[in-house]
């Protein structure tokens, strides 16, 4: 784990670069290119890049430290799609070839702090490029990338063309080109003498393009295959139907969690969702004697490791994690059932369960919280209600009044009737508030863990019931009691349309003169 990420108060975020960032970018670039034959930037070219096209330059920040830099400019396809070299097309690094009318976005630089690799900082910067390209309605993004493993492997493959084909076929991996292909870029050409100072790449540049799916492509002949393509302006959700099974250590638990986070991140998810109290699986590590309340409270000992794991995964995989819930011991000794949300910029939020079930209160001495707050994310404000809380419509309405459009409901139910109470109430919350509701539940068995022996679950993603949505108000569903992941792309813009011009307008038609939700908690 990169040491800077251990500070929970530091955020990882991307913003436009400013002239004040230049010293940090210079320091970053010198460390990145040390020993490669290339040199880091100086003040002049960076000043030119930022002043020439300020909206096209991005920095990734960890707190106040620059840990990534991305430089772009606009240019015509008649130049960018033909063979060229780095010096001529970038104006010797100053971005002086920037054409305000250019129909392509040219990527002249991406560099990431070597000490912070493994946290998808490059992916975040590439995403900013794509979003800028779409915002400007350009044809796409084009650049020539490095091939840093070429020199050491060329003899084995005989030619650069054969080596690139092996990487495209996933028979060989290159840390740069494999990553770029995974980001949706396509090999357009191989350019000799693109940057002769790049000794490891032997001067070659791999000419890559990403085509903007929102605009017609000039000169496209026929359809291109696209698998798993994201629809613009959507939020992709992956909800995990998690199987409870005994584990031998916290590390074994962590590997299971890491697997699911990686799966949803690989499918370009914005959120991965885990169930309520799925951490009670940790009680199987050792046989614990004592009352159910004592064994339940024992999971609180893992709370710090759980938080460190989840925060690291959110940063490393560039995904927001709704990390179910886990027992937490408050400063006054009270045990609460606490949901956690780990954002991909490093922020952490918690949401206590407001209404412990009679079972939780009796067997585990769980106490309810008194706050329900919207959580601001890069996909808009979200809310979390844990299981039984979804059966109280006032809580969801309080969140919607705060601007929430997606409600996450981690749940834990032992048999079908219990599950259906949660399911039907969540569908009602989606209809009456015109929001999306995401359920994530446990399945399987956990012998010898009091009050968690059996599970019944059918995770799903629910929508309002109106013409713009799926026929049954279900965007995604699962088979009951089978470990799996359900995905759906949700469009917040569709909710706005439904709220303002739907068949019914539940939110607009409320009688505020007769009733309201007045929150008296925190």
In short:
The chain has 522 residues and is α/β, with parallel strands linked by helices.
Record keyword descriptors for this entry.
single chain, globular, 522 residues, C-N_Hydrolase_sf, 7-stranded mixed β-sheet, alpha/beta, 12-stranded mixed β-sheet, 15 helices, 29% helix
Report on the architecture of this protein.
The chain is α/β, with parallel strands linked by helices and 522 residues long. The protein contains 15 helices and 19 strands. It has helices at 22-33, 43-52, 77-80, 86-90, 121-135, 150-157, 160-168, 177-182, 250-266, 292-298, 303-317, 358-364, 393-401, 416-433, 492-501, and strands at 12-16, 57-62, 65-75, 104-112, 140-145, 186-191, 205-211, 235-244, 271-274, 320-329, 335-342, 348-352, 375-377, 380-384, 406-411, 436-444, 460-462, 474-477, 484-490. β15 (406-411), α14 and β16 form a beta-alpha-beta unit. The longest helix has 18 residues, at 416-433. The chain is globular and about 75 Å long.
């Amino acid at each position: 784990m990169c040491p800077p990420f251990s500070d929970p108060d530091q955020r990882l975020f991307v913003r436009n670069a400013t002239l004040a960032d230049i010293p940090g970018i210079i320091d970053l670039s010198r460390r990145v290119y040390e020993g490669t034959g290339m040199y880091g930037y100086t003040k002049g070219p960076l000043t030119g890049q930022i002043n020439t096209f300020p909206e096209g330059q991005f920095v990734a920040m960890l707190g106040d430290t620059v840990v990534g830099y991305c430089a772009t400019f606009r240019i015509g396809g008649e130049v960018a799609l033909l063979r060229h070299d780095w010096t001529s097309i970038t104006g010797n690094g100053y971005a002086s070839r920037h054409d305000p009318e250019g129909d392509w976005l040219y990527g002249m630089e991406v560099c990431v702090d070597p000490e912070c690799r493994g946290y998808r900082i490059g992916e975040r910067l590439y995403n900013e490029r794509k979003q800028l390209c779409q915002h400007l309605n350009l044809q796409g993004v084009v650049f020539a990338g490095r091939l840093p493993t070429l020199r050491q492997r060329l003899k084995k493959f005989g030619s650069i063309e054969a080596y690139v084909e092996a990487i495209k076929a996933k028979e060989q991996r290159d840390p740069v080109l494999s990553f770029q292909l995974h980001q949706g870029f396509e090999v357009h050409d191989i350019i000799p003498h693109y940057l002769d100072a790049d000794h490891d790449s032997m001067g070659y540049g791999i000419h890559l393009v990403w085509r903007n799916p929102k605009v017609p492509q000039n000169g496209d002949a026929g359809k291109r295959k696209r698998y798993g393509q994201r629809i613009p302006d959507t939020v992709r959700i992956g909800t995990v139907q998690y199987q409870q099974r005994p584990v031998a250590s916290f590390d074994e638990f962590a590997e299971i969690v890491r697997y699911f986070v990686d799966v949803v991140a690989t499918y370009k998810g914005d959120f991965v969702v885990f169930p309520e109290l799925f951490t009670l699986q940790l009680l199987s590590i050792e046989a614990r004697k004592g009352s159910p309340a004592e064994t339940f409270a024992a999971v609180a000992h893992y709370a710090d490791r759980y938080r460190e794991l989840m925060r690291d995964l959110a940063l490393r995989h560039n995904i927001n994690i709704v990390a179910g819930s886990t027992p937490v011991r408050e400063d006054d000794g009270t045990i609460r059932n606490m949901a956690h949300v780990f954002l991909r910029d490093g922020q952490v939020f918690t949401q206590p369960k407001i209404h412990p079930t009679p079972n939780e209160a009796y067997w585990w001495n769980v106490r309810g919280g008194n706050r329900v707050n919207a959580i601001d994310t890069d996909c808009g404000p979200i809310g979390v209600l844990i299981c039984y809380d979804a059966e109280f419509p006032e809580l969801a309405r309080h969140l919607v009044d705060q601007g929430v459009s997606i409600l996450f409901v981690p749940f834990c139910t032992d048999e079908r009737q219990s599950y259906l109470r949660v399911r039907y109430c969540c569908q009602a919350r989606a209809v009456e508030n015109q929001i999306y509701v995401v359920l994530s539940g446990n399945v399987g068995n956990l012998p010898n863990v009091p009050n968690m022996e059996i599970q019944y679950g059918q995770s799903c993603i629910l929508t309002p019931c109106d013409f713009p949505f799926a026929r049954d108000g279900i965007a995604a569903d699962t088979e009951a009691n089978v470990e799996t992941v359900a995905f759906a792309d949700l469009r917040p813009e569709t909710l706005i349309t439904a709220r303002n011009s739907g068949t019914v307008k539940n939110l607009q038609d409320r009688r505020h003169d007769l009733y309201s939700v007045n929150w008296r908690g925190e």
